[in-house]
Amino acid sequence: MLRFLYTIAIYLATPIIVWRLFTRGVRYRGYFSRWRERFGHFPDPGLHDSIWVHAVSVGEVNAALPLIQALRRRYPRSPVMVTTVTPTGSERVRAQLGRDVFHMYLPYDLPRAVRRFFDRTRPALALIMETEIWPNLFHVCGERGIPLVIANARLSERSLRAYAPIRPLVKQALGNVSHVAAQSHADARRYRALGADPERVSVAGNLKFDMPIPQGVGERGAALRRNWGEQRPVWIAASTHEGEELPVFEAHLSVLARLPDALLLIAPRHPERFRSVEHSARNLGFSVATHSGSEVPDRGCQCFVIDAMGAMMRHYAASDLAFVAGSLVPIGGHNVLEPASLAKPVLVGPYTFNFEEITASLIEGGGARRVESARELGAAVLELLRDAQLRQRMGMAARVVFARERGAVRRTMVLIERIYARSNEARMRHTR
User: Fold this and answer.
1) Per the structure, how many domains does the chain have?
2) What positions carry a catalytic annotation?
């Protein structure tokens, strides 16, 4: 009955969902492509006994990449399918994995769309990244005997509270989950509180610690610095959201008052906001260049807008320090491990609940600092840009924390191998 009522609500909300898809497509054309896949309509790809990995967007795809590579090595005869929700996630899959995997958009959680999806893809194993709980999708997995693992599972206190009104429904959905491989002990505790079977929850660590550092990224960063001016102070504000650019620009103005040749690199989180951020910077009087216009801003450039996807790591490498955004507004923060892996000092705002334990580890280890406002951000950036030894100490401390926490892929693969083997044995018994 709970799932029936939920399904009625989803059907009633479908016009709103379609309208949201349309409005996003107006700002970012990628949302208009392959929209039929979101309702389970796509040509049969001819997959059998595939391994299915679902990763919502860019961040989840990045976390999943080392696990996908490990799965392909361990099960070379099994086709791998990767689903995403956002076009930027789709672009990331294609850029990193190309034709090595079959990619499509995950259908909305409508019963007929979900069944069409399973009828055409026929997965033998399902891996859902982080915090995606879809009652109809999970029900069909259970109904068809498809082992389902929530990998790199995280659940913030905020999300736990948000699920409270529908907790019985979520508990029912989690009953179809073979295992929850949590990022941290806090995440494991919250999944148990949400209704997951305590015997099926364990801590495997965060897969993002196992992400490979792109080969030659340091050299590419150094080349950018040579073009911009090697002695220039450079800082990056990464993955900014609406409500964060103005504080970042205010912080940069305070930096420029003391360091007139300082350069700000700013990377908006969503492509549809690239132009508005560029216009805001120009309206505030900054000398602005953009990635799409030129990768070599001249010596007079004060603000460089990174209006491209997949360019973050080399720009981290080219920076003296990184402010990881999504944290000055209550988004929950973004991936602090990317700059940490390159031994860059990290600054974050007050809202980091998406990366709670990782951020705490970096702060406790001396690799990161928390700021509460534009004024504090400007002061911290200025202090770090003026003190090379402090930057080096914080950067090395961040790198130590990153290296110490690696190993989640190995631990997750042990769980997957055990669950997959058990499932295969059960299928063989059933077919005899």
Assistant:
1) 2
2) 60
